[in-house]
Amino acid sequence: MTSTSRLSVNVNAVAMLRNRRDLPWPSVTNLASIALNAGAKGITVHPRPDERHIRRTDVHELANVIFNQFQGKELCLEGYPDNNFLDLVETVKPSQVLFVPDDPSQTTSDHGWDFSTHMDLLKDVISVAKSWGVRTSLFINPDESQPELAAQAGSDRIEIFTGPYGACPVASPASLLELEKLVKTAEAARDCNLTVNAGHDLTVDNLPALIQRAPYIGEVSIGHGFTADALIFGFAESVKRYRKALGEIG
Q1: pLDDT at 1
Q2: Which domains does the chain have, with CATH numbers?
Q3: In this structure, are residues 13 and 223 in contact, taking their beta carbons and an 8 Å threshold?
């Protein structure tokens, strides 16, 4: 087992809770700091145009905390590559940008890119992000044909949408079928020399089977399940629970 973490904690839900009231708590930066101190690799946020959870000010505050107080930790910005989002990426220069094909009205990212429609756009925005020194990742469906297209677009990484797998009961026949799709997609990405990330509805119960089959996964981004656990166990203990599920600590 390794002491290096692959866990990036998505704190969108923390911001959503805070935004219910005109109050500064719960603090996004404070809880992100707890997760990082407990061993998380980094923090992921998805600043949507309506700022219904993460606000642009949160992004700047998180960047300041992470880059000044947590050397070696990462900030990942997730979003649709419109001009406003790209301006934020250029200003903040996060460790990684995950481009997702979301409509602003979506509640969460629930599908990967349609490369036949968006290849030119993706090539352009990836080239621009790389010129800023930002690592790039593309959100893709669990389909072994997709990593090659992501590589053609010039991306450094892919993040496989694991929602269909997470929606199945653990170890059920349906989950095993979805797991096989994830593994084949991950293998195809590795064959294209792309680093493999994964995210959506991953939990301490369904992570072990995925990591056992695809131990080369470089990063998992977890928000909803992590926050649900944190309501019971707290942020620091939830980091430990997820790192155990990843096989990183005993």
Answers
A1: 36
A2: 7-245 (3.20.20.70)
A3: yes
